[in-house]
Amino acid sequence: EPEVTQTPSHQVTQMGQEVILRCVPISNHLYFYWYRQILGQKVEFLVSFYNNEISEKSEIFDDQFSVERPDGSNFTLKIRSTKLEDSAMYFCASSDRAKGEKLFFGSGTQLSVL
Amino acid sequence: AQKVTQAQTEISVVEKEDVTLDCVYETRDTTYYLFWYKQPPSGELVFLIRRNSFDEQNEISGRYSWNFQKSTSSFNFTITASQVVDSAVYFCALSMEYGNKLVFGAGTILRVKS
């Protein structure tokens, strides 16, 4: 089965540093998402992206966050100035239809902000 | 507002026992979609099932079965003859008529002991 690939699997950074989390969605998918899961808590929606634009974003997704599809295969999440509370597992997901469709999730990037 | 409640934080069973994971949802939409995802210890999110709001048929897939009841806003998941490999966190999730944004429940930790 096709997979969503995320790199790196683990990222450690100092508070205030910028990080970029990378994802390669499934090749024929058009809808892309980022979710995060703080340790022991529920999975939370951050942002959805379609046609090179943000479709929807949550309150968590403030000005410190940005997403980009720099080429035909990658989808990135940038955190400009990391905070301790950004420590979480970040999941990328993709789907091939706009609504009611299952999301294919990557294995996640565990971000630790020290 | 949409909400998913998984009241069972953690369940422990002995192998071969049947176990039911509860999920109750809230939404004002008439069209919506319900999902179950599994998160094994390795951390990835694995899709198990999707149901739309107009399809109340129960579904069985091997040892897994799902009971969707609109009258009680519930979408419960039963594992028959549980196995150690079923040990994981199970998330119920809801998406609305438009878009694929998933609202997750808090998850239920299932521990199956041999």
Task: Outline the structure in words.
The complex is a heterodimer of chains A (114) and B (114). Chain A has 114 residues and is an all-beta fold. Helices cover 0% and strands 50% of the residues of chain A. In chain A, β5 and β6 form a beta hairpin. The N and C termini of chain A lie far apart (36 Å). The mean pLDDT of chain A is 93. Chain B is built from no helices and 12 strands. Chain B starts with a strand and ends with a strand. The interface between A and B is medium-sized, with 28 and 26 residues.
Give keywords.
heterodimer; A: 114 residues; mainly beta; 7-stranded mixed beta sheet; 4-stranded antiparallel beta sheet; globular; B: 114 residues; 6-stranded mixed beta sheet
Rg measurement of chain A, Å: 13 Å
| Run of helices and strands of chain A | EEEEEEEEEEE
Shape of chain B: globular
Output the number of helix runs of chain B: 0
Give the helix proportion of chain B (percent range).
under 10%
Low-confidence spans of chain B: pLDDT under 50, at least 5 residues? none
Radius of gyration of chain B: 14 Å
The average pLDDT score of chain B comes to: 93
Number of strands of chain A: 11
How far apart lie the N and C ends of chain B? 41 Å
Structural class of chain B: mainly beta
Largest pleated sheet of chain B = 6 strands, mixed
Annotation field: number of helices of chain A: 0
Largest β sheet strand count, sense and barrel closure of chain A = 7 strands, mixed
